[in-house]
Structure formats: structure tokens, C-alpha cells
């Protein structure tokens, strides 16, 4: 596709959320916010978006930082970069499915600019942070002129590049509950090459074991890049719950996950290949999450 220079725009850099919301109210459809710009500026060069006013969120301190609390879990500001998450010890130790995801995203340069908030708000089916956040039971806070609301990440997406986020709302932070004892998660991304590629298939698995009976008491499987939105695979989860996890069961869960996917065929992969790979990658993700608990 022919990429042009950036179109002309008026640049704003507010330092508070209220100032940002005032600008959005003033300019309406003519304004767009951005964080790292790694998605939006590219789409502007392709003329998919031509906002007259660009509002840079990176001056808003309240949207930055990673805060961990043993009771509440982890709060990640929308402006936290993928690189900051990659270098966070608490994310690596406790929320490893998310850590897995940022480690296979883009390049170091893009990770140093691109944010977790921008990845979710871009709402593409292959957004890599979405499946692990869904599997880990995360929610997002959205703030607009009428106040703040909380939405589970699994209910955030509506369709390709569409979410429940309103034009006059800002995603402020992501909250992931503290994982209980005897639980763990993983994210596996299948790509055409080992780096700098979008997912052909992405699967996140989260498992919790019953400490007394050794069976799985809770399972969440989330799929990316194989449907119009990142989504859970409830049929695969049901196969695992109340059972002892083993390879044969993980194979069954993989089969169930692949019956749910509705991918497209595109330049990167055919529909059939994606569906059969969902089966394989789900099985691997379940077994990896299980081994991590051990
Ligand atoms: C070379 C390259 C490789 C890439 N590889 C990957 C990859 O492997 N996996 C992947 O998932 N993505 C990939 N991406 C896409 C992109 O880098 C990520 O989605 C990144 O996380 C976007 O974050 P950002 O801060 O740059 O978003 P921006 O471009 O700043 O914004 C993206 C969208 O979100 C909106 N937005 C941003 N922040 C907020 C907020 N807080 N509240 C409300 N709306 C907001 C903007 O209006 C815009 O519509 C790649 C991009 C490039 C250029």
C-alpha cells in the first residue's frame, strides 16, 4: 500500500485528564487522542484516519506507572509502554501470560513507544495483549465527561477496530486481579517469523488447581487473531474444569477451541491453517500453564 506523508493537523499536549476531556468535547469527531502513535500515525499516513486535531496523552502523569498491591492486584496505567511491562519484575513473576505477550510483540523500538492502552484501543483482532488480559480476568477503566466506568477486557471488543470505548472517553488503566495460589498462565503466539510479525494465532491459557484434589478448579482460554474480536473459548474451558490436567485432556480442549474460531484467510495465512493451529497452540498453552503451576 502506498504510504504518504502525514496529513496536516493541529497538535495538542494536555497535562491532565480533565483538560483532555474538554478538548475532546470541543473538537468532537475532528479530534483523535494518541499515546505512542505506533498505530495511529501509520493509519494517518495511509489516510485511514485524518484528524484535524491530534491530542498527545503522554503529558498526563495520572495515566502512567505500574502499581502492585497484594489484595487488589496490579494497576497498569494506559500509557505504560510495552517495554516497561517487558522489564517489570512483578509482571514477569505474577502475571506471566502478559509478560509472554509483550516479549513477542513488535521490535524494541516499537515497544519503547507503543502502550498497553493503545494496543487495546486499536481493537484489532490480533492485538497481543488482549488474550492474556482476558485470560487473567483483567478489566479496564474508561473515563469520560459523565464519569468513570469499568469494563471487563473480555467485553471490551465489538468488532475489528471497534470497541465499547466512546469517542469522548479515555482508557485510563488496566486492573488485573492478584492470581490465587496454585494458578498460572501463558500466552503463545504463532507467527510466520520469530520477530516483528503479527499473530497468525494467539492463545492465552490461565489455570487454577484445587490445592487438595489436584484437579483444575478454574480455566480461562482466550484466542486472538482467529475471529473478528479476541475472545474466550468456553467450550475448551469446560473440558478442563474439575479434571486432572494431562496431554489427552489438553488435546480435547484444543479441538473444542478450534470449533469456535472464525478466522479470515489473508496474505499471512489461510482460514484452514489458522483453525488447525488453534487446536495445536491451545493444547500447548494449556500444558505450559499447567507446568508453570508445578
Ligand atoms: C512495526 C510494528 C510492529 C507491530 N507489532 C505488533 C505486534 O507484534 N503485536 C501487536 O499487537 N501490535 C503490534 N503493532 C501495533 C502497535 O505497535 C501496538 O498496537 C501498540 O501497542 C499501540 O500502542 P500506541 O500507544 O502506539 O497506540 P496509538 O497509535 O497511540 O493509538 C492507537 C489507537 O488507540 C487510541 N488510544 C491510544 N491510547 C488511548 C487511550 N489511553 N484511551 C483512548 N484511546 C486511546 C488512539 O486514538 C488510536 O486509535 C506493531 C506496530 C508496528 C508499527
Explain what the structure shows.
- This protein has 11 helices and 14 strands.
- The chain has 294 residues and is an alpha+beta fold.
- A hairpin with a 6-residue loop joins strand 13 (216-224) and strand 14 (231-232).
- Helix 9 (234-240) runs antiparallel to helix 10 and helix 10 (247-260) packs antiparallel against helix 11 (271-293).
- The protein is globular and about 60 Å long.
- The mean pLDDT is 95.
- It binds flavin-adenine dinucleotide (FAD).
Kindly list the characteristics that best describe this protein:
binds flavin-adenine dinucleotide; alpha+beta; 4-stranded antiparallel beta sheet; 14 strands; 294 residues; 5-stranded antiparallel beta sheet; 11 helices
In short:
By secondary structure, this protein is an alpha+beta fold. Helices cover 34% and strands 24% of the residues. It is globular, with a radius of gyration of 19 Å.
What is the radius of gyration?
19 Å
Sheet/helix structural class: alpha+beta
Separation, N- and C-terminal Cα atoms:
48 Å
Main beta-sheet annotation? 5 strands, antiparallel
Across the major sheet, the strand order is 4-5-10-6-7
Count of DSSP-assigned helices: 11
Averaging pLDDT over every residue, what do you get? 95
Amino acid at each position: 500500500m502506498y504510504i504518504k506523508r502525514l496529513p496536516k493537523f493541529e497538535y495538542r499536549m494536555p497535562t491532565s485528564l480533565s483538560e483532555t476531556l474538554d478538548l475532546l468535547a470541543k473538537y468532537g469527531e475532528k479530534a483523535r487522542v494518541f499515546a505512542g502513535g505506533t498505530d495511529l500515525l501509520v493509519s494517518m499516513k495511509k489516510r485511514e484516519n485524518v484528524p484535524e486535531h491530534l491530542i498527545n496523552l503522554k503529558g498526563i502523569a495520572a495515566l502512567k506507572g505500574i502499581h502492585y498491591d497484594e489484595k487488589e492486584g496490579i494497576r497498569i496505567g494506559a500509557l505504560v509502554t510495552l517495554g516497561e511491562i517487558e522489564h517489570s519484575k512483578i509482571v514477569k513473576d505474577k502475571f506471566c501470560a502478559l509478560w509472554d505477550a509483550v516479549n513477542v510483540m513488535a521490535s524494541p523500538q516499537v515497544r519503547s513507544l507503543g502502550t498497553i492502552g493503545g494496543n487495546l484501543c486499536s481493537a484489532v483482532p490480533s492485538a497481543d495483549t488482549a488474550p492474556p488480559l482476558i485470560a487473567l480476568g483483567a478489566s479496564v477503566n474508561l473515563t469520560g465527561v459523565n464519569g468513570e466506568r469499568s469494563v471487563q477486557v473480555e467485553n471490551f471488543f465489538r468488532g475489528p477496530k471497534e470497541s465499547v470505548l466512546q469517542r469522548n472517553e479515555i482508557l485510563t488503566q488496566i486492573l488485573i486481579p492478584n492470581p490465587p495460589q496454585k494458578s498460572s498462565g501463558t500466552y503463545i503466539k504463532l507467527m510466520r517469523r520469530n520477530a516483528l510479525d503479527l499473530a497468525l494465532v494467539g492463545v492465552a491459557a490461565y489455570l487454577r488447581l484445587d490445592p487438595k484434589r489436584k484437579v483444575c478448579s478454574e480455566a480461562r482460554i482466550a484466542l486472538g487473531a482467529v475471529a473478528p474480536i479476541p475472545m474466550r473459548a468456553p467450550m475448551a474451558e469446560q473440558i478442563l474444569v474439575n479434571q486432572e490436567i494431562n496431554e489427552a485432556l489438553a488435546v480435547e480442549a484444543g479441538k473444542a477451541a478450534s470449533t469456535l474460531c472464525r478466522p479470515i484467510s489473508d496474505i499471512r495465512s489461510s482460514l484452514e491453517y489458522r483453525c488447525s493451529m488453534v487446536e495445536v497452540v491451545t493444547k500447548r498453552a494449556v500444558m505450559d500453564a499447567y507446568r508453570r503451576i508445578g
